[in-house]
Amino acid sequence: MSMLTALKQSVAATVFGCVIALSPATADAEPLRVAFGDIPSVETLHLLIAFERAKEAGLDLEVTYLKSEDIAAQAVVSGQADVGVGGPYALIQKVRAPVRMFMQLSTLQMYPVVAADTYKTWKDLDGKEVAVHSRGSGTEAIMRLAAEKNGIEYSNISYIPGSEVRTGALLQGNVKATIVDASGKRILEAQAPGKFLYLPLDDLAATDEGLFANTDYLKEHPQEVATLVEAILTTWREVAKDPAAVERLREKYKLLPDASPEMVAEIGPYFKEAAAGGLPLNGGGEEAVKDDFDFYTTSGALEGEASGLKVEDFWEFAPLKAALAKLGQS
Where is the SsuA/THI5-like domain (predicted)? Predict the structure, then answer.
């Protein structure tokens, strides 16, 4: 299990203890504060690289790693952070939180998985517990939508942030049904071939992770946000052309220093698959948001009809448009 625990155990004790370490905004001189509801891992390595590039471009940037997307979103809503990582559609609609999404980071490329000695099909999960990333996340939406389409109802949905953590829980036998990313799928197939089954899904095109910010911050700091967006777009485009660049850039910026050899070996295959699956090279846009509305209303994360939802109620495109004006469309 060293691949799954080496980084998690060394980092978790530090970052999980700093959940309330964020301080309220006090002055314009403060850095752009990012609340990240996860801990550093292979699946987020390209974003960590983009953060470093934003700093090189002159952006004063601080990243705080928190226990869940829920806590990260709360930090942004309360003003303890400026930018969050996640997909706060339900938060915006149901709580009317003063935040807006401004960039798509990834689309849903996930794999519902079950222990083969316990379950075989979606129907077998009727009345059973499943685990997802966090409340309101794309992983939860996928599992709820699958339940609806297959005419079943879970006994409970538990929240376990991090695909690698859920993968480890499967291998340890602590979880019998969950959803993992491509990296987790490869780990399961390599370490326990034949022990797990992957349940079928319809094609998905919705946002998995995005960036969102307090509306006041977006109005008052457009250049800072645009600089962050530029760094991410530049990194995504480089990874799409050459997935091996992630390994070189990890070395350059000394990222994931506690990663085990097995974890390091996973970087290349993970980003090769991510590039083949299609990274959002233009940060999303109105068409991407329409896909989100279709998916999240069908899954129940958003209320109402997709056609009745207004893009401007959930997204602010000014920073993305500014970055694309400089970098061009890909």
Answer: 55-244
SS3 at position 112: strand
Topology at the third CATH level for domain 111-198: D-Maltodextrin-Binding Protein; domain 2 (3.40.190)
Mean pLDDT of 156-182: 94
pTM for the complete prediction?
Answer: 0.77
DSSP code, position 315: B
Q: Domain limits of the chain?
A: 2-107+207-327, 111-198
Cα-based angle 57, 86, 104 (whole degrees, multiple of 5): 60
Among 1.10.150.120, 3.30.470.30, 1.20.58.220, 3.40.190.10, name the CATH number for the domain at 2-107+207-327. Answer: 3.40.190.10
> What span, in angstroms and rounded, lies between the C-alpha atoms of 258 and 278?
29
CA distance 132 to 312: 28
Residue 29: which pLDDT band, with cuts at 50, 70 and 90?
A: low
pLDDT exceeds 90 at position 134 = no
In sequence order, what are the beta bridge partners of 108?
Answer: none
| Span 200-259, pLDDT tens digits | 987 777 898 999 999 999 999 999 999 999 999 999 999 999 999 999 999 999 999 999
**Distance from C-alpha of 87 to C-alpha of 302, rounded to nearest angstrom:** 12
Tokens matching residue 17: 């203890």
Does position 327 have pLDDT exceeding 80, yes or no?
yes
Q: Going by C-beta distance under 8 Å and a sequence separation of 6 or more, which residues neighbour residue 115?
A: 170, 173, 176, 177, 195, 196
Which pLDDT belongs to residue 11? 34
- Local confidence band at 287 (pLDDT 50, 70, 90 cut-offs): confident
Give dist(CA 3, CA 6) in Å, integer: 6
